[in-house]
Design a protein that fits this description.
With 460 residues, the chain is α+β, with helices and mostly antiparallel strands. The protein has helices at residues 6-13, 28-32, 54-64, 115-123, 139-144, 152-155, 183-189, 225-236, 278-285, 304-307, 333-343, 393-407, 428-432, 436-446, and strands at residues 19-21, 45-48, 69-72, 88-91, 98-101, 106-109, 127-128, 162-168, 174-177, 198-205, 207-208, 212-221, 243-245, 247-251, 266-274, 296-303, 320-328, 352-357, 379-387.
Length: 460
C-alpha cells in the first residue's frame, strides 16, 4: 500500500470542507466497511467529502500521488466497488441532502442519500419515483446501474426518471448535464455505473404516489411452486401496470403471520404492490390466493415508506453476499423447473432466488435512448447467495454459479449491472449490448486514462 504522510494528508485536509482518514485514524475502519462483508479492502486514504467542491481536490490528490480511485455512495454495491485496495476512496456518504420542489415534482438529491432518505423526503408530499426495495441502498449506485423496484412497471427504471445530474469528470471539471447540455455524457450516465465521473447531485422526476398504498405477501408451500409459478406467469401477462407482483423462493423467515411450524420451511412467496385505490387493489390480488393453499398472508393498506422498508430485516449489513443475475423475456417451463430445482437445495437459510417483474414502461424506451439497453427484459432474476461464516463461502458461491449456468439457456440478452459481482468483468460488454461502442467512445473523451475503473468498467 502507498503510505500517505500525515503532512500530505493535512495539506489536503486544509482544502476540504470534509475530512481525511488514514489507516491509523479511528474513523478509518468504519469508513472502509461496506454492506457486503466479503469485501475487506484497505484504501491508503479516505476523503470524506462534505460538499461537491471537495471532489476535485480529492481527484487532484489521487493524481499527484498516483493513487487508484474508488467512489463510495451508500456502500451497498454487491461487488464492493466503493472500496479500492491501497488507493484513494472518495466517500460521499455524508452528502445526504434531499430537496423537493413539490410544485415541479422534482427532487434534488446528493449522492450519499439512501433510498430511505429519499423516500422519507418525497413522501412528505405524496411523491415518489421508481427506486429499489431496500431502504439502506444508496441512491447513487442504484441510479447509475439502472434501478428498478415496485414502481418500475408504471414509471420505468430509476434512470428513466433522471432529469439532470451535476458531476465532476476525471480532469476535475464540474459539469451539469441533461438532455440538452453535454447530452452524450448525460446519456452515458444512464447505466454507466460511475465510469464517467463523480456525481454530486441528481435531479429526479417525481410522480404522485401514496402516502398509503396496498401491499403485502402471500406465502405458499414449496411443494406447490410449479403450479404457483405457472399461474403467476399467466396472471402477470395481463396485470395492469399499477400492480407489481414478484416471486421469492427461500426458507420462511419467522414472520408473525405464519404458524411457528412453517418457520424455516422452503416456501414460495408472492410479494405484491398496488399503487392505486386499495379497494381496486384488493379485487386485483384476490385471484392470487387461488394459486395454491397458502400458509398465510399479510396484505393491506400501509404507508409507502413502510413497504419500502419491509425487506430490510432480510438485507441487513454484515453478512457475506454473492449474487448472479439473468434477464428474461419469458419464463418458460424449463426455466421454472431449473429454478425450483435449485430452490430445493438452498445452501444457507438466507439464500434465495427472486424474480422481479419489470414489464411495462421500461419496455417502451428505445434500447439506444440511454446507456441502459435491456429494454426487452420483462423479468430480472437474482440468485441471491447470502450467509454469515467464511466457511460457507464455497458451498454458497458454487450453488449460485451452478444455478446461473443451469438457467442461462432460457435467459435473454444483457445483464443488470447492479447485480454483477467483481468476477464478472467478462459480462460488461454484454451488459451494455449495442451501446457499448458508444459508451467506450464517450469514456475516451471524458476519462481517457480510465481514472474511474473501480466499477463494471468500460475501457476507453
Amino acid at each position: 500500500m502507498t503510505r500517505i504522510s500525515k503532512g500530505a494528508a493535512d495539506e489536503l485536509n486544509s482544502k476540504l470542507k470534509g475530512t481525511v482518514s488514514l489507516p491509523y485514524d479511528t474513523s478509518y475502519d468504519e469508513a472502509r466497511k461496506i454492506w457486503n462483508a466479503m469485501i475487506d479492502r484497505h484504501p491508503a486514504v479516505v476523503v470524506h467529502c462534505a460538499i461537491a467542491d471537495d471532489v476535485p481536490h480529492a481527484l487532484q490528490f489521487a493524481r499527484d500521488h498516483g493513487l487508484e480511485v474508488s467512489i463510495r455512495g451508500g456502500g451497498h454495491n454487491i461487488a464492493g466497488n466503493a472500496v479500492c485496495e491501497g488507493g484513494l476512496m472518495i466517500d460521499l456518504s455524508a452528502m445526504k441532502n434531499v430537496r423537493v420542489d413539490a410544485d415541479k415534482k422534482r427532487a434534488y438529491v446528493e449522492p450519499g442519500a439512501t433510498l430511505g432518505d429519499f423516500d422519507e423526503a418525497v413522501q412528505k408530499y405524496a411523491l415518489a419515483t421508481p427506486v429499489g426495495i431496500n431502504s439502506t441502498t444508496g441512491i447513487s449506485g442504484l441510479t447509475l446501474g439502472g434501478g428498478f423496484g415496485w414502481l418500475t412497471r408504471k414509471y420505468g427504471m430509476t434512470i428513466d426518471n433522471l432529469v439532470s445530474a451535476n458531476l465532476v469528470t476525471a480532469d476535475g471539471t464540474k459539469r451539469q448535464v441533461d438532455e440538452s447540455k453535454d447530452a452524450d455524457l448525460f446519456w452515458a450516465l444512464g447505466r454507466g455505473g460511475g465510469n464517467f465521473g463523480v456525481v454530486t447531485q441528481y435531479e429526479y422526476r417525481l410522480h404522485s404516489v401514496g402516502p398509503e398504498i396496498m401491499a403485502g405477501l402471500i406465502v405458499f408451500p414449496a411443494a406447490e411452486a410449479k403450479q404457483v409459478l405457472q399461474k403467476y406467469r399467466a396472471y402477470v401477462a395481463t396485470a395492469p401496470e399499477e400492480l407489481s407482483v414478484w416471486v421469492v423462493l427461500r426458507q420462511a423467515p419467522p414472520l408473525p403471520f405464519l404458524p411457528a411450524e412453517v418457520h424455516g420451511k422452503d416456501v414460495i412467496v408472492l410479494p405484491m404492490f398496488y399503487a392505486g385505490d386499495p379497494a381496486e387493489g384488493e379485487k386485483l390480488i384476490a385471484p392470487l390466493r387461488s394459486f395454491g393453499k397458502p400458509y398465510g398472508e399479510h396484505i393491506g393498506p400501509m404507508p409507502y415508506v413502510q413497504w419500502q422498508k419491509a425487506f430490510d430485516p432480510l438485507l441487513t449489513p454484515g453478512a457475506r453476499n454473492y449474487w448472479k443475475s439473468h434477464n428474461f423475456i419469458d419464463l418458460e417451463d424449463k426455466a421454472l423447473d431449473v429454478t425450483i430445482e435449485y430452490a430445493n437445495k438452498l445452501p444457507s437459510p438466507q439464500c434465495e432466488i427472486f424474480i422481479g417483474l419489470i414489464e411495462g414502461a421500461a419496455n417502451r424506451v428505445a434500447p439506444n435512448a440511454m446507456a441502459y439497453a435491456s429494454r426487452d427484459a420483462k423479468f430480472v432474476m437474482n440468485v441471491h447467495g447470502r450467509w454469515d461464516e467464511a466457511a460457507q463461502d464455497k458451498a454458497c458461491i458454487d450453488w449460485a454459479r451452478a444455478f446461473f449456468q443451469a438457467s442461462k439457456p432460457y435467459a435473454s440478452a444483457g445483464a443488470y449491472v447492479n447485480f454483477m459481482t467483481e468476477d464478472e468483468t467478462d459480462r460488461v460488454a454484454a451488459a451494455y449490448g449495442a451501446n457499448y461502442k458508444r459508451l467506450a467512445s464517450i469514456k475516451k473523451r471524458y476519462d481517457p486514462e480510465n481514472v474511474f475503473h473501480v466499477n463494471q468498467n468500460i475501457k476507453p
